[in-house]
Amino acid sequence: MIKNNLRTIQENITQTALNCGREPSEIKLVAVSKRFPVEAILEAHAAGQILFGENYLQEALDKKKIVKNRVRLHFIGHLQSNKARAAAEIFDMIETIDRLKIAAALNRHLQQMDKKLDILIQINIGYDSGKSGVLPEHSETLLKEMRGLSNLRVKGLMTMPPFTEDLVKTRTFFSDLRNLAGKLQKMELLPETHVELSMGMSSDYQIAIEEGATLIRIGTAIFGQRPQK
């Protein structure tokens, strides 16, 4: 099942990208494996999937012991500063930086490890009180405050917009993130070229691709119904 689902999604990514004039290779699939057993990761990896997203640190640590360096792990959950050292050790990217405290903690541990880490700034693009993320109007200040954190490499932005069945609203959230990235790029607060935009999930990733996503986070469409905690 996982192999077939991955094939279908990759075909959809390719076709959607071509339809809107983008190169399919610009878009990377993050298979969201939170709460799925490590066997699901291994099955997806056997089908060619390399990049996986995890929300819970202890779960990711347990899985990392088994998968080792065969896959790349992105952290897509809410990170506490007292967990920063472990996160710095095992993840290839942290997509959910939204405050200076956690960024500084990560940077301090990375300096001790003599390691650099790719990160994304999580933006609360829909002003959703139930979601983490820095508000769009505060993102400039946060990025300026982080300029001295030399062991963190800011690659772009990430968002989880409010849930809605109105795909027109969803598209607006995605386009707002793209426009914010363009603004921050002009201010030289994001990379000059190839800014990462992590947005879009199982129900809306094709819209996200049309609006500029470079990372899409898909779980249930790959692995099926997510197990309960």
3D architecture notes:
The chain is an alpha/beta fold and 229 residues long. It has one domain: Alanine racemase (TIM Barrel, Alpha-Beta Barrel), CATH 3.20.20. Helix content is 42%, strand content 17%. The chain contains nine helices and eight strands. Strands 7-6-5-4-3-2-1-8 form an eight-stranded parallel β-sheet. Strand 3 (72-75), helix 4 and strand 4 (93-97) form a beta-alpha-beta unit. Helix 4 packs across helix 5 (100-113). The chain is globular, with a radius of gyration of 17 Å. The protein starts with a helix and ends in a 6-residue tail after the last helix. The mean pLDDT is 95.
Outline:
This protein has 229 residues and is an alpha/beta fold. Helix content is 42%, strand content 17%.
Helix content: 40-55%
Indicate how many domains the architecture comprises.
1
Class by helix and strand content? alpha/beta
Q: What is the count of DSSP helices, taking H or I runs of 4+ residues? A: 9
What is the CATH level 1 assignment? Answer: Alpha Beta
Beta percentage is 15-25%
Question: Would you spell out the secondary-structure blueprint of this structure?
Answer:
Layout: H1 2-19, E1 28-32, H2 38-46, E2 51-54, H3 57-67, E3 72-75, H4 84-90, E4 93-97, H5 100-113, E5 117-122, H6 139-145, E6 152-158, H7 167-186, E7 196-198, H8 205-210, E8 215-218, H9 220-223
Parallel strand pairs: 1-2, 1-8, 2-3, 3-4, 4-5, 5-6, 6-7
